[in-house]
Design brief:
Layout lengths: L1 E5 L4 H9 L5 E5 L14 H11 L3 E4 L13 H22 L2 E7 L22 H16 L2 E7 L2 E2 L6 H11 L2 E5 L3 E2 L2 E2 H17 L5 E4 L6 E2 H14 L8 E5 L19 H7 L6 H12 L3
Parallel strand pairs: 1-2, 1-3, 3-4, 4-5, 5-10, 6-9, 7-12
Antiparallel strand pairs: 8-11
The chain binds NADPH dihydro-nicotinamide-adenine-dinucleotide phosphate.
Length: about 300
């Protein structure tokens, strides 16, 4: 079994290198060419040539244009990487009879209300990044290829930068932090996403009727303010010396960004849990594990 992984050094891609390894022969690429294979999603012809050369049984696309604010102005590049490149992957997967595994976002929804989004809910992208990711989803579905699309949210990895590490860094120097309290979601570990991908893919290979669109996020819900408070309390309880004494809740309107953010990032994961008999742990368990690594405890 040949597996082509794109975006191998992103948060999710890095964890997929580990979780996909037992499933088959893994060819993992980032945007830089290796042995004449281009993994650059902005080069559509190069991408198509790579797939035709590798002839994978499974394509896992963890690469994406994820700069949410920049996507408001770099619209053409965001559309090419998130939309047109995904279409190339889907067309080539359909021709080869290969599986395509892809990731999308709750930003395809309006972000309104307080009910967790289901796969069947109406889409209305909240910003250009969300629109470009939706175009990618639709290209996959239209292609007719065998696919698993996982919409996720609030992704963190232990490697590289993440929200928790930023809060800890700021809390070392500042007595007071302002954190958004009216956006709600579930911090979801890249390691959990990668593990669920491998488990679901293993089942889908045996039962192709499981193909489809799924919501994937850790259990529970929290605001960014609650998340920051949790991280800082955990660090203090584990002996970190932090200057911060007050963490103030603020509204999204007090922190304007080029791209609009959804207030409601809750994802209903019932379909994924039922179809694949999977358990999704509460967000605290993955965050605790990540913090133990970050704090070296
Ligand atoms: P990251 O930003 O960590 O990783 C994205 C990867 O894509 C990076 O390694 C980046 O490489 C690569 N990439 C960007 N442009 C190109 C290109 N033109 N060609 C090849 N590679 C490229 O994202 P995540 O791991 O967090 O996201 C994984 C998936 O989950 C994506 O589909 C994303 O849209 C989705 N998602 C993420 C959320 C989040 O909170 N992060 C929330 C919801 C969904 P480089 O470092 O070289 O730029």
């Amino acid at each position: 079994m040949n597996i082509l992984l794109l975006g191998k050094n992103g948060q999710v891609g890095w964890e997929l290198q580990r979780s996909l390894a037992p499933l088959g022969q893994l060819i993992a690429l980032d945007r830089h060419p290796v042995d004449g294979l281009s993994g650059d999603l902005s080069d559509l012809d190069g991408l198509r040539a790579t797939i035709r050369q590798v002839r994978p049984d499974i394509i896992v696309n963890a690469a994406a244009y994820t700069a949410v604010d920049k996507a408001e102005t770099e619209t053409e590049l965001a559309d090419r990487v998130n939309g047109q490149a995904t279409q190339v992957l889907a067309e080539e997967a359909a021709t080869l009879g290969a599986w395509l595994v892809h990731y999308s976002t709750d930003y395809v929804f309006s972000g309104q209300g307080s009910t967790a989004w289901k796969e069947t809910d109406a889409v209305a992208p909240v910003n250009h990044y969300g629109a470009s990711k939706l175009a990618g989803e639709q290209a996959i579905i239209d292609s007719g290829c065998k696919h698993l699309i996982f919409r996720t949210s609030w992704v963190y990895g232990a490697r590289g930068n993440n929200f928790a590490k930023t809060m800890l860094r700021l809390a070392k120097d500042r007595e007071s932090l302002n954190v958004i309290a009216d956006q709600i979601g579930a911090p979801t570990g890249a390691d959990l996403i990668a593990d669920v991908t491998a488990l679901a893919l293993g089942q889908a290979l045996q039962r192709p009727e499981l193909a489809g669109l799924y919501h994937l996020a850790a259990g529970g819900e929290i605001s960014w303010h609650g998340y920051a408070s949790h991280v800082i309390a955990f660090a203090k309880a584990n002996g970190e010396e932090l200057a911060v004494t007050s963490i103030n809740p603020i509204d999204t309107t007090a922190y304007p960004t080029p791209a609009r953010r959804p207030l409601n990032s809750r994802l209903n994961t019932q379909k994924l849990r039922a179809n694949f008999s999977l358990h999704l742990p509460d967000w605290q368990s993955g965050v605790t594990r990540m913090l133990m690594e970050v704090l070296n405890k």
